[in-house]
Write a structure and sequence with these properties.
three-stranded mixed sheet; about 150 residues
Length: about 150
């Protein structure tokens, strides 16, 4: 979700200030990376629902609450809110709960699954299988070939 960089400030104070259909035209692509690409796809309006299937030992508090409905880790919704660009990152971090956003995007529902609890019960438009060298162990690379057997790559 981009916890390790300042892209969140760019998203909340610049990108989200544009109508959703114009955001791709003004996107600063240099801000998109392996750690935050999912946040950018949601802020573009390209995702309307997410199912996360995580490693069984993943710590739920990895989400950045600034992107969540009511800033609540257990809300089940992402809610992207636009703020005035005059606010610095440190000011937003300390005061965001008390600042009225300029506007809000539609809610994006999400569910979290552990591998043993996930069953495909509906068709999906897209599957994102993340192979991030900084986050995914090399021992997981063999799964890419298995997943390729079941999907059409684009």
């Amino acid at each position: 979700m981009g916890l390790g960089d300042s892209a969140w400030h760019y998203i909340l104070t610049q990108l989200l200030s544009y109508p959703i259909e114009q955001r791709i035209k003004i996107l600063d692509r240099s801000k998109v990376n392996l750690a935050n690409y999912l946040t950018f796809t949601m802020s573009m309006g390209w995702i309307n629902k997410l199912n996360f299937v995580f490693h069984e030992y993943w710590n739920f508090n990895d989400f950045f609450s600034i992107y969540l409905k009511d800033f609540d880790d257990y809300s089940g919704f992402f809610e992207f809110r636009s703020y005035d660009s005059q606010y610095s990152a440190s000011y937003l971090t300390e005061n965001i709960r008390n600042i009225n956003p300029l506007k809000k995007d539609s809610l994006i529902p999400y569910k979290i699954y552990k591998p043993n609890n996930f069953k495909l019960v509906e068709e999906y438009d897209y599957l994102v299988f993340c192979q991030s060298p900084q986050y995914t162990p090399k021992t997981a690379d063999y799964m890419l070939d298995i997943i390729r057997e079941y999907i059409t790559e684009i």
